[in-house]
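Page 47, continued from p. 46.
Same chain as before, 493 aa.
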Amino acid sequence: MANYPQLDDQVGVWKLKDVNDALMGGYWRVHGSRGLCAGGNDGSGSDGQTAIDFVTLTTAGNATDFGDCTNGAERTGAISSNIRFICDTTSSPYVATEYVTIQTQGNAADFGDHTATRYFTGSASNSVRGLKFGGETGPSDSNVIDFCTIASTGNFIDFGNLTQSRRSHNAGAGSPTRAVVMGGQTPSSVNTIDFVEIATTGNAVDFGDLDTAMGAAAQTSSSTRAVLCSGYDGSNRVGNVQFITIASQGNATDYGDMDAITTNGAGGASNSVKAVISGGYTGSSYHNVIEQFNIPTGGTATDFGNLTVGRGNVGTGSNAHGGLNEGYQGTRIAPIPQGLGAGQLGVNAGGETGSNVSDISFVTIDTTGNAQTFGDLSAAQSYGMGAGSSSTRGVFMGGYGGSPLAGQNVIDYITIGSTGNATDFGDLSVARWGGQNTSNNIRQINMGGSGPYSNVIDFVTIASTGNAADFGDMQAALGQGAACSNGHGGLSS
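Result:
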């Protein structure tokens, strides 16, 4: 990557290509990007700390007082956008949240209530939505996921459920489109990783496993990597740092260690490059150490500074984390990838060899050679299945069901850059085969089809999951045909 001036270090010659690549690639640094640390337990025997601290993520140093929460309490992973920071108020009845405006110092104000009474929740957000995951209800653990619209105060809304009920700061992080939930306690520490697509609603899906089971851990992310560190493995406090690639599915990789003190109950904040881990509990005391490491490379953390008060079970967030596309606050739409930079895999699925098959295979487009196994569809399909893709996902719609008029309503998807079996996406509005499909990097459209002949046009948003939505109708009901598009308009014949 070429060197280019930063907004907080304007030395050098601006290259427009470098600036564009940085903005669209998700590694643009925002001058003055802030990390906040709210509340926590300081071991005093009271309800907990009310303090809110902040640091400037691009510059190491001690935290500065921001303001105060309404009630002193242990708070868990917080939600933040470019503008607002929202944390739990975990005083009984354990449902309230409150917020501050990140660039304006001052005390917190009421935001709204969760759908369920619980504490020790996990959190993740993009610039629009904030999600809360699981938690402890007192006698048991919760699998509840609920969400809020960050720009509007009000109560949270039901989103779905985790694959496993768990608590204890079960860490969440994410990209602008996907939230991941890593680890937690049941009460034993677990290695479970779940994910959801933020723009939709529905139950979480299994992502993979942590390298080390960990509860009460700190978390943060760039737009491509989610990182978990410094937690409790069920027997001991462990300081290892592990990451996953958010856009794929698979197990976490250990790639670093905390340095000064091994804790649980610390909190993480980040921008595109740097993770900052604050506070925590050592087993005998609550500490104020802030450490930092680079998300792209990992390694051993180094000293950043100190909190104003030592405490654990804190709520942390920033206005430049991975769910915010690294803090880029402009309004440009990222260009649709073109040519070699968009990837080099071609994927083929289903078909007939005397009976329907479920095989998915792939080739590398710029290299000759035989196809290789990618995975399997959720159900064997013969001919007539529609397909489309963005630069990251492939989506398969409908298909022939094995009798003269039988069509399928199944929609499957794969992550093109990661081999594995297809996952259920949702359903077409009408079961059919032979529909004409076209797509751009955002939407896929399925038009017409047989079983019987249909004039229905459905569409899905490729980055999400859910049932297809009505787009409109064709001028006539058509069976098998062809479709094409230029990324803006589509044609069918």
